[in-house]
Design a protein that fits this description.
By secondary structure, the chain is mainly beta. The chain is built from 1 helix and 14 strands. The protein has a single domain, classed as Immunoglobulin-like.
Length: 128
């Protein structure tokens, strides 16, 4: 009888959780980040969706040559690409002297179906 009650309790607990939202179709997003036409290295590009999806973390590391590739993380699983839609985009870096540099673009960028190539030219960064 105890085994039956335990199984029933487990079934109720497991069955009452919210189902995870399905990962939308992802599209490749690559590009380069530059400040005054000079490649920025060792930072991160962050994308914030216009649609509220707190279950998705969308970002990409910036390499030595300023190149980045965006990935989407849902529940700890990282997949290359980003869902189609409009995004607020920002760039963050240590700035070389352990002083964080943050730059947020004032206009939105859009991920469209198919490959997306973004060349992000920064005019100045704001120290945090």
């Amino acid at each position: 009888m105890r085994g039956f009650l335990l199984a029933l309790c487990l079934l109720l607990v497991v069955g009452c959780g919210k189902p995870a939202k399905e990962l939308p179709t992802l599209h490749p997003v690559t590009g380069k980040v530059a400040l005054k036409s000079k490649a920025l290295a060792d930072g991160e590009v962050y994308l914030r969706m216009e649609e509220d999806r707190p279950d998705l973390i969308i970002n990409g590391l910036v390499g030595e040559d300023g190149a980045f590739e965006i990935s989407t993380n849902q529940n700890g699983k990282r997949t290359k690409g980003a869902p189609a839609g409009k995004y607020w985009v920002s760039f963050g870096s240590s700035g070389g002297n352990n002083q964080p540099l943050i730059y947020a673009f004032t206009s939105q960028l859009e991920v469209k179906a198919g490959p997306n190539q973004w060349d992000l030219e920064l005019s100045k960064a704001r120290k945090q």
